[in-house]
Amino acid sequence: MNNLDKNFGDLNKQQIDAVKKTSGSLLILAGAGSGKTRVLILKIYYFLISKLALPNQILAVTFTNKAANELKTRVSNMTGKIIDSWWVGTFHSISARILRKHSELVGLKNNFVIIDKDDQIKLIKSICESEKISLEDKNAKYYLKCIDRFKNDYISEEEVFEKAKIKDERDLAKIFSIYQNELIRLNCCDFGDLIIHCLSIFKKNNKVVKQLQNQFKYILVDEYQDINPSQQEWLKYLYSHHKNICCVGDDDQSIYSWRGAEIKNILNFEKDFENPSIMFLEQNYRSTKRIINCASHLINFNKNRYNKKIWSQNSEGSKIEIRGFWETKEEAISISSKIEELKTSNTPLNEIAILMRVAAHTRSFEERFLNIGLPYRIIGGIKFYERKEIKDVIAYLRIANNHNDDLALERIINVPKRGIGKLTLKKINLISRNKKISLFEGCKIYLQSDEGGKAKIEINNLISKIHKWNKVINKIDHIDLCELILEDSGYMELLINESKLKDHIESYDRLDNVNEFMNGLKEFENLEGFLEHVSLVAENDNIYKNEKISLMTMHSAKGLEFKYVFLIGWEEGLFPSKRSIEEKGQSGLEEERRLAYVALTRAKEKVFISFVNQNRYSYASHDFNSPSRFINELPKEDLEIFNSEIFENDEYSFNISQLEEANTAEISPGKKRLIENYNKINEQNLAHDRDISAINQSSFNEGDRIFHKKFGYGRILEIENITALINFDKSGTKMVYLKYLFRE
DNA sequence: TTTGACGACATTTTT
DNA sequence: TGTCGTCAAA
Length: 744
Prior knowledge:
Elements (H helix, E strand, L loop, with lengths): L1 H7 L4 H8 L4 E6 L5 H14 L8 E5 L2 H15 L7 E4 H12 L10 E2 L2 H15 L8 H13 L4 H7 L3 H19 L2 E2 L1 H14 L1 H10 L2 E4 L7 H11 L5 E5 L18 H5 L4 E5 L1 E2 L4 H11 L11 E2 L7 E6 L2 H17 L7 E5 L6 H10 L3 E3 L9 H14 L4 H7 L9 H14 L3 H10 L5 H19 L5 H12 L1 H10 L3 H19 L4 H10 L12 E5 L8 E6 L10 H23 L2 E10 L16 H4 L6 E4 L2 H4 L7 H6 L7 H8 L1 H20 L7 E4 L3 E9 L2 E6 L3 E6 L3 E3 L1
Parallel strand pairs: 1-7, 1-8, 2-3, 2-6, 4-5, 6-7, 9-10, 11-16, 11-17, 12-14, 12-15, 13-14, 15-16
Antiparallel strand pairs: 18-19, 18-22, 19-20, 20-21
Helix pairs in contact: 2-3, 3-4, 5-10, 6-7, 6-9, 8-9, 10-12, 14-26, 15-16, 17-18, 19-20, 20-21, 21-22, 23-24, 30-31
The chain binds a DNA duplex through helix 5, helix 10, helix 19 and helix 26.
């Protein structure tokens, strides 16, 4: 117990209470940065060390793999042993584990494939085609969204059928039901099915559910505010024997309602679990007083919340800096020079993050960072396994593994190009559908028909190759198999040829990715293990190794912390997102505000907020953007507001003298290049400046008719320095740069 | 059947 | 902005 007390040493009273309450139902409402992960870890540790439970009797569920891994490694470090038999994982990975064992109970084989969104969409499209349901006004994405929602909310096919009144609803019900049948036929399931299938196993098979209920003496749930009704039901089943459950969450950080995690679900805790007790963790250990003050002040605008008040004993810290810019480019320039500043004062780049509402907004920063040679990483952009080339390789492995994997075959049947086009595929599809056989078998039938020439030879070829791969699948190891398939199929050749083309940068990446994939393969004992990993684990874990600036969405920043946080794109309409307000009204707005709260509380030392006046993209060009209302909702005394420094300081380009002042040893390759190219850039800038002055010389006058590339013709209302307010004939009134104007 | 050009279109957040 | 789908030509 000594050891234990040592570990408890720096916990506060509430945290210790939370750790020591082991039996019954406990909901811990833990504010951001209040050490909830520590509490969870210590709880597991406490169960183990006080011999309350064996490792495999503890079920710890999280929503992200990151969180699951953190729990595992930190507990392993404390106990000094690595435990591989335990049940720590995401809802989905644990469900997959259960489902693999009992798949036959829901009509799947144990080597079922977990499909992703692309496959889901493809499947829905093909269902609509064969059912003659038009995708004109409701597209496949819409149906997918509905189906996902049914699964999140634990609504069965039957219920959907019963409720369907108008034709659209009946179509939806039909698609849903066929979709489910198709998944079973193809031996696949989607993410939602992992949970749903478990539920039907629990429901149907008493023996299985009893065994699991007996096994899990203690259940721990992280990020409980993210729970959806299906997952809640899932927990209820597993809880109901020992009845020990502890959920940790923060209603103010509920930002996944579109995944069925509505904030009201947290209330089910008191409904579904017996004698619930609720504890609060309110002391924040992460951030400065000012940051906490801002975050609390902001979140107080929400009506729909538990009244939890976070506070901090840390130092007061510096004010939040607010900046406005005209263009995203300027935003990127300003932030990058701020980062350079931080860097020279020895801040590790790992402690700096730029958070945005929309993943796509990394672009201007990427460009800038590449330009000046600041290393950065994008977290949660395109997932590794979502890349085209990786999915292609996986499809090859899948079809070798299982001939009846129609989705995989369809994906690679003409990649690389074999002259098996849409038309041929359609014919084969028709055959398979009519005969109710797999695509693979359909191909064989097609070969016996009289039609087609070249395509047939190729199909025949492919089929015999697939047969061949399948024969050796158990004879050689999976790495050799993968190499063999890549060679044999001509896919490697395709990549290599592509990389030789003029624009080789991207294809070189692809080759790299495939190689990385093969490397990853080595870490798994067999193909199945790897395929499971790939479909359930989005990120690769070694992303934190190097010193880099992190760029990510506010959503994916949840659970992370950084010394300095830049929050960009705080423009009304973008954040809070117009769409979410339109879709969900007040509750949508509150969710956006919670997102702002999450974003603010990521910072330990200092927050920088910025907004951009002019359109971020041409297509978002509706209007002149104004600063987010959330900026107004922050307490004035904690803010330091700057006008667009761009206009005070007309030198936009990177300042070379700053560069030379910096320690030369620190200069990265990118910067070196920059210095080398400095003259060139400088010339360009000079030319650019000349352009501007040329325009200024020929200066426009108020009332002039002008032309703008993006917005068309218009009349100048007002000229201000280097910008002008224009009344455009077709696109309304906008502020634009003079340099982009032409005489009519 | 493939390729290229063109225009339409959509753009939140993810296990 | 870039991706996707459609269309016509090769």
